[in-house]
Design brief:
homodimer, 242 residues, alpha/beta, TIM Barrel, nine-stranded mixed sheet, 6 helices, globular, binds iron/sulfur cluster
Chain lengths: 242, 242
């Protein structure tokens, strides 16, 4: 029986980021990450602070809970983490959701490949820029994109780089140059995960978004690119579970 | 020789709406519309107020101007209006842009079909809800979607409904139910095109966006749906040409 460490199940809400931004979706957040990004906005998935909330659930349990909460008001589920790519059994959940008529989106930093990647309807690979303090394993990332290519699934995937500063922007250019044919998203980083005043945060985020747009517009290395804000943070500040 | 009535050429900037929201793009705004939406935010394209700014340009002229402004910093052009679907010669511009390695997005309300629709890379059909004061010609809209289907281009198109109130939301549900397999976007209407204080506008727009999300989330008739803000208005208020 499959067993997936789950921290949160909630929705329906909108997807606030990336290739299907705005999509009505349910969220399943898994526990555990092989990274330790300096600005991680879901550190509770790996830093032990929420370890008593982790539940080991089967795919059936997860679907049941999704249905209890979401009823007939969803046909799309987003799996996020942590790094859900650590979980071999995720494929069982993906199959079950497909059987139930749901599309599945999933985000991972691209440090690990799983065979079920080729089943994901909206797969976001978000390698982490220098400001995270992490090192990208390019061999792994090349490998993932190679597998997706072989399976004819590149059009179901995208790359997303979160940008906090100029060094991150340079990194983003490298990623885009390395995989020019993969849909590419730039996103403003929220480096203010403690800010409790939503209006202050909203204003700061829009200013940073404007900066990122400006820098992207003036670069001829960033053309086939989409620049997005973090819609969730704009709307709901730093609250969890919305 | 083709002749296209042009009001504005600008960019690169981001696409602020719809299926390729965030995409780096150049804009070409054409003059003339067969509609008179009550809340039209580009009434200057048809109300005579900018008639001295209209230039009749050939496709080559337009590309030359795009290149003069945008240089090597774009590979995507968005044609908006007014209603660019009034212009038979648009196909010549689309072909030329493709030759130059550009993708082409275009938005129209869906009141008129043109053969070149099947060449557009990101075609947004945005039928107008009751608050506009306009009547949708469903036979025309059915016809357009039929043509796209025949040409295997439905995946290059999307429907977008701008929502100002509850009646608009009901209209949106009808549109989605009529074309369930077409990618469907809901967008908050900006009914405050006179507001000059950007922060006030930004705050109002986010509140309305939150309302639209809430109403969408609680409806089982709106599942395969994406809800988006008007990113341009959030960032730049009611200014033109950004
Ligand atoms: S990869 Fe994601 S979940 Fe893991 S530490 Fe980095 S930001 Fe946090
Ligand atoms: S269809 Fe568009 S351009 Fe024409 S009046 Fe309506 S909003 Fe304005």
């Amino acid at each position: 029986m499959s067993s997936i460490p789950v921290l949160e199940i909630f929705g329906p809400t909108i997807q606030g980021e990336g290739m299907v931004v705005g999509r009505k979706t349910m969220f399943v957040r898994t526990a555990g990450c092989d990274y330790r990004c300096s600005w991680c906005d879901s550190a509770f998935t790996w830093d032990g602070s929420a370890k008593d909330d982790i539940r080991k659930l089967s795919a059936e349990d997860i679907y049941e809970e999704l249905y209890t909460i979401g009823g007939d008001k969803f046909d799309h589920v987003t799996v996020s983490g942590g790094n859900p790519a650590l979980l071999k059994d995720m494929g069982i959940l993906v199959d079950l959701l497909h059987d139930k008529g749901c599309e599945v989106a999933l985000e991972t930093q691209g440090s690990r490949y799983q065979e079920w990647f080729t089943k994901i309807d909206d797969l976001t690979l978000s390698p982490k820029p220098p400001s995270s303090g992490m090192e990208t394993n390019w061999v792994k990332l090349d490998g993932i994109l190679h597998e997706l290519e072989q399976a004819g699934r590149v059009d179901k995937a995208s790359l997303k780089v979160v940008v906090f500063d100029e060094a991150d922007l340079e990194y983003a250019k490298d990623v885009h140059a390395r995989y020019p044919h993969v849909d590419f998203f730039l996103q403003v980083g929220n480096d203010d995960t403690e800010e409790q005043n939503d209006e202050v945060l909203m204003y700061k985020l829009l200013k940073k978004y404007e900066w990122l747009i400006e820098r992207t517009m003036e670069s001829d290395a960033l053309n086939r690119v989409r620049v997005l804000p973090q819609v969730h943070a704009l709307l709901w500040g730093n609250r969890r579970g919305v």
